[in-house]
Amino acid sequence: MLTGGRRNPAYSGYYYEPTVLVDVNHSMDIMREETFGPVLPIQVVRDEEEALRLANDTRFGLNANVWTRDRHKGKQIANQLNSGSVVVDDCMVSYAITESPFGGVKESGIGRVNGEIGLKSYCHLQSVALGRFATKREFFWYPYNAKKLRLVRRLVDFLYRSRFGKLLGN
Predict the structure, then answer these.
(1) What secondary structure letter does DSSP report for 88?
(2) Which of 6, 14, 76, 142 has the most CB atoms lying inside 10 A of its own CB?
(3) pLDDT greater than 90 at residue 168
(4) Do residues 88 and 110 lie in contact, with contact meaning Cβ atoms separated by under 8 Å?
(5) Cα separation of 50 and 77, whole Å?
(6) Maximum Cα interatomic distance, the chain, rounded to a whole number of Å
(7) pLDDT digits over 51-66, tens only?
(8) CA–CA separation, 165 and 54 (whole Å)
(9) How far is CA 168 from each of CA 11, 157, 159, 163, rounded to the nearest angstrom?
(10) Cis bond leading into 143, ω under 30°?
(11) Rounded alpha-carbon distances, angstroms, from residue 170 to 140, 151, 157, 159
(12) 0.85 cut: is pTM over it?
């Protein structure tokens, strides 16, 4: 641990000091569970490929950060992370004041807040289908009889065997 790791003695209650942890690995709970606290675990990885594999190897996906000197590379890495949102080279972006939708994936939530998609998440969709004709009964519904059968055969012949049907491409 580099710093923190205890309740802040200056405050009563559950105020935990910002904590930086080193020498962590992917098997530790701190790397596999959501903390929602001021904790920064640092794990040394072999390369970018391993970093992406480990970052995506979780059942959570609320938010991610990418830190790099190359902004273009940061965006490429961000696009490969399975997370509801990714911030590149910043940690103080406030979703409450932006139009950017915010929400998680996997077990970190469903849906979004903010922006047009967030507003639409408060809507309930309803499909309404209206009958084509205002009849008491559809023509093709049961009961069937010989007259209906003759009419259907004539309609099929007209649509599929006549010159008109061939003009339609049937």
Answers:
(1) E
(2) 76
(3) no
(4) no
(5) 12
(6) 91
(7) 999 999 999 998 888 9
(8) 60
(9) 80, 13, 8, 9
(10) yes
(11) 21, 19, 11, 7
(12) no
